[in-house]
Amino acid sequence: MRSFFAFILAVLAIGAVALYSSAFIVHQNEQALVLRFGEPLPAVTTPGLKWKMPFIDTVEKFDKRILDLDTTEQEVTASDQQRLIVDAYARYRITNLLKFYQNVRDEERVREVVGPLIESEIRRVLGSATLQDVVKDKRESLMKQIAAQVNSEGRDYGLEVVDVRIKRADLPQENLVKVYDRMRADRIREATELRAQGDAEKNRIQANADKDVTIIKATATQKSDEIRGDGEAERSRIFADAFGQDPDFFRFYRSMQAYTTALKPEDTRMLLSPDSQFFRYFEDPTGKAPTAAQPAAPQ
To answer: Torsion angle of alpha carbons 110, 114, 116, 117, nearest 10°?
Structure first.
């Protein structure tokens, strides 16, 4: 009886092991290939619990997502003979699991098998374009052209190149100095031209300003002369009217003005003859000139 129970337990254990060995799980981001005696069976691309022959079948799982592939940094000569150091990468996904397993075997060998094909297409496509196209004008279309050509030539590998991108496209080190010097010379030339244009504009503005200043000053001088002339004419008219009304007072007023102008407080000295008319108001309040003494009649 004890041997019978032991046999039952052994059978159950073997059945459990066989059941465990015959089941495998495929996750959402995976696809699997069942190998029977090393020969591949149809690929399993749907997720879930799957079955296989225990102890006979083996399972190889592969990623279903888009994967990255770095290429080797390489030197490319553009069509305008400009040399470039190009560092690119590709993004791919496995579309035919059976072909991928037969020609590539696993994801670790993608770099060895497909990498040279991508690098060759990069050299060919970029070599037919100019430096301006690679760096700026046609970069997007060139990358699409590389991806399309790789997919055309790489159908047997069971994968699809989704995208190819350039991480870095630099000139060789020895060319960088020349390019820098040329850019520096261009900037200096441009700055010189802008400075010359600025000087010319400054001279034009200054000349116009000087002309405007001359015109304004001349107009102001003319206007001031006219106003001064009108004022002097008015003053002369007023003086003439005043002289006509009271000539004696006018003469007295003009003499007082002459005294104020001639006699300054800073040590003024004057030499006049005794009969000078200048100080006649000091001799006589009426301002009449003194009469000279009549000479005596000869005896």
So the answer is: -170
Helix orientation angle between 139-153 and 115-127, rounded to the nearest 10 degrees: 140
- Stated pTM of the model: 0.55
β-pairing, 48-51 with 23-26? antiparallel
Are 127 and 82 contacting, i.e. CB atoms less than 8 angstroms apart? no
> Quick check: 74 and 121 in contact, CB under 8 A?
no
Whether 59 and 24 have beta carbons less than 8 Å apart is answered as yes
Mean pLDDT of 243-249: 73
The per-residue pLDDT for range 47-104, each reduced to its tens digit, is 998 888 888 888 888 999 999 998 888 888 888 888 888 999 999 999 888 889 888 8
- Read off the DSSP letter of residue 136: I
SS3 at position 298:
coil
* Cβ–Cβ under 8 Å, residues 31 and 73: no
Beta bridge partners of 88: 166
What residue spans of 246-268 are helical by DSSP H?
247-262
Of 169, 149, 4, 22, give the one whose Cα is nearest residue 84. Answer: 169
CA angle 163, 168, 171 (to 5 degrees): 135
